[in-house]
Amino acid sequence: MNYSSEVKEILDTPLNMLTFVVFDIETTGIHPENGDKILEIGAVKLHPDFRFYFISCG
């Protein structure tokens, strides 16, 4: 299987059949050059069997 066919296979797979991670980033704003900072990073790993694990740092 080559890269192109692997990508097509993943893109053709329904989301409820994939394992993936959703990230959430909380910030003080959208301009780091003006001093805005990341306050918290969270992640949720979703599995095909609908169990998930919550990770939060901050």
From TrEMBL:
<dbReference type="GO" id="GO:0003676">
    <property type="term" value="F:nucleic acid binding"/>
</dbReference>
<dbReference type="InterPro" id="IPR036397">
    <property type="entry name" value="RNaseH_sf"/>
</dbReference>
<dbReference type="GO" id="GO:0006259">
    <property type="term" value="P:DNA metabolic process"/>
</dbReference>
<feature type="domain" description="Exonuclease">
    <location>
        <begin position="21"/>
        <end position="50"/>
    </location>
</feature>
<dbReference type="Pfam" id="PF00929">
    <property type="entry name" value="RNase_T"/>
</dbReference>
<protein>
    <recommendedName>
        <fullName>Exonuclease domain-containing protein</fullName>
    </recommendedName>
</protein>
<dbReference type="InterPro" id="IPR012337">
    <property type="entry name" value="RNaseH-like_sf"/>
</dbReference>
<dbReference type="InterPro" id="IPR013520">
    <property type="entry name" value="Ribonucl_H"/>
</dbReference>
<dbReference type="GO" id="GO:0004527">
    <property type="term" value="F:exonuclease activity"/>
</dbReference>
